[in-house]
Amino acid sequence: MTDLLLSEAEKMFIIHGVQDNLRVDGRSCDDYRHIELETDVVSSANGSARLKLSQTDVLVGVKADLTTPPTDNPDVGTLEFFVDCSANAAPTFEGRGGEDLARDISSTLARAYSSDRCSSSMLKALCVVPSEQCWVLYIDILILECGGSLYDAVSIAVKAALSSTKVPVVKVTSSDGGKPELELSDDPYDSLRINVKHAPCNVTLSKIGHSHVVDASLEEEVCSLASLMMAVTEEGTVTMLKKSACGSLHPESIYEMLETGKNVGLNLNKQLTRQLLDEECLHTQMGTNREPKGFL
Amino acid sequence: MAGVEVVSEQGFRTDGRKPNELRRIRCKQGVFSHADGSAYIEQGNTKVLATVYGPHEIRGSRSKALHDRAYVNCQFSMATFSTGERKQRPRGDRKSTEMTMHMKQTFEATILTQLYPRSQIDIFVEVLQADGGNFAACVNAATLALIDAGIPLKDYVCACTVGFVDDVTIVDINHLEETNHIAEFTVAMLPKSEQFVMLEMSSRLHLDHLSKVMDMATKACKDVHLVLDRAVRDHVSEVWQQLGNT
Amino acid sequence: MLTSMLTSITIYLNAMPLDRMRIPGPEDSKPPFVYETPSGVDVSNLVKTNGCRKDGRKADHIRPMFIKCGIISQAQGSVYIEFNNTKVICGVYGPREFGKREDFSMNGRLTCDFKFATFSCKQRRQHQQDAEEKELSQLLLQSLSPAVCLHKFPKAQVDIYVIILENDGSALSAAVTCGSLALADAGIEMYDMVVACSARKYFNSILLDPTAAEEIVPMKTNESVDEGEMTVAYMPSLNQVSGLILKGEMHTQVCAQIMKSCLEGCNLIYPVLQQSLITSIRKSLSNVDLQGSKEL
Predict the structure, then answer these.
(1) B-chain residue closest to C3, CA distance
(2) Does C18 map to a domain?
(3) Whole domain around residue C221: which residue ranges?
């Protein structure tokens, strides 16, 4: 990410502000910045979402493909996360410069989506013919700008993109004895939707001074020594928990952060579900006339 | 020829355009705040983002520095979900490397590089959705981003892809037309001085048709220039107003 | 299209160290364990009625350990650890000079390399690091770096290489413990040693230091929560958690509960580490004495 240099005085200003529950941009410690979300922005993908969280900007595209299922799990589909840190976000990402960050984000996401309930609710539907054919969803994440709490932004955008994903319906006509034949449905509106009820949202809590904040801006990330990342589902369960950044945390503060993170995550999920419903309504009302706002 | 006919008997193309008609161009400058300059352009369904960093100190090995002019660094990448079939890698394949080279040559010829000796200018373009004329859209987006960054140019660089089929020249061809194996021209030019900075042709074309096709391409690039110039002027006046001026 | 595909394939082949002496099996061949159904593993017997696990431990017991410091003569510090059948070796090299390309930095740098030996797991591992190993390297680095006084060796880096020789569960926690001990053995200045411990939540019991069989056993049912495994890296005398990772889905209270058990486990391991360090230093001192007396 871009190197940001802060003087000691600036750091102290931010830390003291956090202590008094008033941050530099006027938020309190567990407030998110304004989030702009739009689904179905890329027509060449099965599902897509673009999320702008203040200066953080990510674009997620989901593409479905048929493949053979993994041998140890023959009756589910699979998810493949791929993150591309575009050089647009920072010149240091040019060439292979963003690969470390990209790998870290994709492994964090894969871990968050690996819980049993999540995979059973989402991936069972993606099986076409057990141990023969299943759908693989390539979730491609494009990082366009980094302005703090990238992991949170990415996870929200992924959930939104998955909820907007339309996988074509495949009919299986089993010709006797031989291999089952697959037939794509002719009707483009006849599609399978992904159940994102158990998909988690990531909440990153950064420890600044003696308190912790959610959705840290770039400046706040510089002031924070350690942070705790947690993926929270709609029911408030945690599917991924990870200490990140090079610092350590007191066990007591982890317990506190867990509770804050849960509450924030519950709220975030609720807001997101509402927003996605709104988007869905908009889509059905406008039909094909709707033009995505995108970057314009 | 197999497949659909590119231009119908009534003189219309598959998407309903006339042969000399461009797709709708929509663009915006200043999409990102971190970068020195950025722009987004939509040409029909082709969507491209471009960012410009610099002029700044040479990054990486110092040996790239040129003592009399700026070093222009380009990167072309395509989002993995931008094409019909998923791309394995966003960059690094042969086609992207070629595009990067072309971009570099185009902009080295246009930027007044001699004003910034021993420094570097980065141009990064990202194709979000590909529907034909990718390179042209990238050049147009990069031009807007360079203008947004305030880097001195000789002129706008306007690019357009032109096709020639059945004695008809069609401008700004889309992906469907590209796949019909027609003669294809990619042209980038400086519209005021009518100078070409990049010219690429694939397939074959009779010499007699060449001047006709070039004329059409010149006309198309000038059309693109009108649209881009309008957008830049609108953007500047908007910023001017936001600064509190009338 | 075809040529570009071909070049990418050749590049891929060139990057892979191929054993040309070996007759390779068919490309899609798989080891037979893949077809071992999860139901074949005896789930019910993980904890017997008398509260004992398969290897006779109670739920909150850790496995017996064997530790030996200074076993790689070329490395500055090295440690071999056994937790019953989990066997780990670690070598620490440095502080040594940065590579030439890097810029000057006031802080030293730590690099971690985590590798499963090809023969360490049930399925054969590749020579090259795969995605899981890269993620574990990252986690190892994040767990160890808070403990090291990086400002003490500017412009230099310390490399930590961990190889799992045999994986019988809790590989990451063994690697962290082994790595921090090797750092201490190398004489790198640290704030505290890092001790790591894993725990598996299984029905109502929390199994400390799980074996591979206990890690693999599938979660209860598809609709279950409060199942999973956590690894905690802990600095006991500072009372700080330096690493935390969770797999599975659970409520935050359960998270806290498991973390507490892990911390207890860490406190059990800590004195053993101290003891082994003292032993190794005594030994090296006596060697010096012997040499000194000879010279006299």
Answers:
(1) B94
(2) no
(3) 53-284
B178 touches C: beta carbon within 8 Å: no
CA distance A3 to A90: 10
Nearby residues of C285 by Cβ (< 8 Å), 6 or more positions away:
none
Neighbours of chain C (3+ CB pairs under 8 A): A, B
Q: Which residues contact A140 (CB under 8 A, 6 or more apart)?
A: A45, A60, A61, A62, A63, A82, A83, A84, B79, B80, B81, B86
- Say which CATH number the domain at C145 has: 3.30.230.70
Closest CA to C277 of C209, C198, C186, C196: C186
Please tell me which of the candidates B45, B75, B80 has its beta carbon nearest to residue A87: B75
Sign (positive/negative) of CA torsion C45, C50, C51, C54? negative
What ipTM is given for this predicted complex? 0.90
Burial label for A255, CB within 10 Å (0-12, 13-18, 19+), is: middle
The mean of the pLDDT values for chain C is 84
> Is the CB of A259 inside 8 Å of chain C's CB atoms?
yes
Contact A125, A192 (CB under 8 A): yes
Q: A27-47 burial, b if ≥16 CB within 10 A, otherwise e?
A: bebbebbebebbbbbbebbbb
Rounded CA-CA distance A209/A216 in Å is 13
Query: For testing the chain C interface, which of A131, A246, A255, A256 should be mutated: the one with the most C CBs within 10 Å?
Result: A246
Query: Closest residue of B to C103, CA-based?
Result: B60
The separation between the first and the last C-alpha atoms of chain A, rounded to the nearest angstrom, is 26
pTM over 0.80: yes
Structure tokens at A234: 């709609």
How far is A244 from A228, CA to CA, in rounded Å?
6
Nearest CA to C202 out of C85, C83, C64, C54 is that of C54
* Residue C172 to residue C136: CA distance in whole angstroms: 7
| pLDDT in 10s for each residue of chain C, 296 residues | 445 544 444 444 444 556 667 776 777 777 776 666 555 455 556 777 777 888 888 888 999 999 999 899 999 999 999 999 999 999 999 888 876 666 677 888 899 999 999 999 888 888 889 889 999 999 999 999 999 999 988 888 999 999 999 999 899 999 999 999 999 999 999 999 999 999 998 878 899 999 888 887 665 555 567 788 999 999 999 999 999 999 888 899 999 999 999 999 999 999 999 999 999 989 888 888 777 776 65
Write down the pLDDT at residue C294. Answer: 65
**Which residue segments constitute the domains of chain A, with CATH numbers given?**
8-295 (3.30.230.70)
Give yes or no for a contact between B160 and B136, defined as CB atoms under 8 angstroms apart: yes
State the pairing for strand pair B119-129/B46-57. Answer: antiparallel
Contact A36, A52 (CB under 8 A): yes
* Tally of domains within chain C: 1
CB contact at 8 A, B74 and B98: no
pLDDT given for residue A177 in this prediction: 65
Closest to A157 (Cα-Cα) out of A144, A167, A176, A170: A144
Residue C105 is assigned to a structural domain of this protein: yes
Q: For residue B198, what are the CA distances in angstroms to A43, B105, B175, B186, B189?
A: 30, 8, 21, 8, 7
The C-alpha R_g of chain A, in whole angstroms, comes to 21
Residue matched to tokens 């808070």: C146
Phi/psi of residue A112, nearest 5 degrees: -65, -30
**Which tokens is C160 given?**
């930590």
